[in-house]
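Subject: Interface between my chains keeps coming out wrong

I've been trying for a while to get a sensible model of this assembly. When I model each chain on its own everything looks fine, but I need the whole thing in one frame so I can look at the contacts. Pasting all components below, labels as-is. Any help appreciated, I'm running out of ideas.
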Amino acid sequence: MIRFHILTLFPDMVYSGLNESILKRAINADLIEIECVNIRDYTENKHNKVDDYTYGGGAGMLMQAQPVYDCIEAVEDKITSAGRKRAKVIYVTPRGRVFDQSIAKEYSVEEDIIILCGHYEGIDERVLEESVTDLISIGDYVLTGGELPAMVLTDCIARLVPGVLNNADSAETESFSDGLLEYPQYSRPEIWHDKAVPEVLLSGHHKNIEKWRLERSLEETKKHRPDLYEKYVANSKKL
Ligand code: ADE
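Reply #2:
Try treating it as a single job with all components included. I did that and got this:
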C-alpha cells in the first residue's frame, strides 16, 4: 500500500485525473490511497491569499512559505501519528532530476509520498530548502503548474505496486523495464486494411515468438531511441 499525498491549490483537477480506470480499481482494492490536500486551507492570511510579489521584482506571483510549510507539516504529522515514518517530500519543478522508470521503481517501495505542486512563478525558496527532500522534473519543458507532473508521477509509481496491474508480468515486459522499447502488438482480425498480422505470432511457437519480439524491440529502439539502444548494447557487453 502506498499513500500519495498531493499538496495543491487545485485538488479537484488531481482527483478527477487519477480516479479512473486502473487507478480507480487500485484505490477501491486498497492497494493505493490518493489524498489531495488544499494548500489554501493552511494560509493564515485573512483573505485566504497564498501568493505575493517576488522580492527583487519580475513578473508574476510566488507561493508564500507559510501555507506551504504548514500544509506539509500537517500531512507529516498525520503520517507519523499513524505510526509511519516521515515521508519524502517531492517538489515537481523543471529544475529537478528528470523522472524515469528507475526513479519510479525507487519510489514504489515507499509507504507515503508527499508531492508538492507549485503554481504561479513557483514557491519561496526558503520552504523548499527546509521541507523538500527531492526535486523532480517530468521533462525539459515548462507547464503552468505542478498538477500534471504530480499526476504523471502518481500514475507511474502506482502501477508498479503489486496487484495494481492485472497481469503479473506486464510491468516487467513493457518498454523501459529492460532498457528497450516494446515490440509491436496485434489483436483480431488477422487481416485489417490488407495488413496481415506477422506469421510467427500465429504459429504458437513460443521460442520463435520470443525471438521475434526481442528482435523487433531492438529494431524499434535503434530506430526511435538510439540513445537507449547504445546504452543497452554497452550494458549487454558488460554482462
Ligand atoms: N512544473 C512546471 N513544469 C514542470 C515540469 N516540466 N516538470 C515538473 N514540474 C513542472
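Reply #3:
Confirming on my end. The chain has two domains: 2-158, 174-238.
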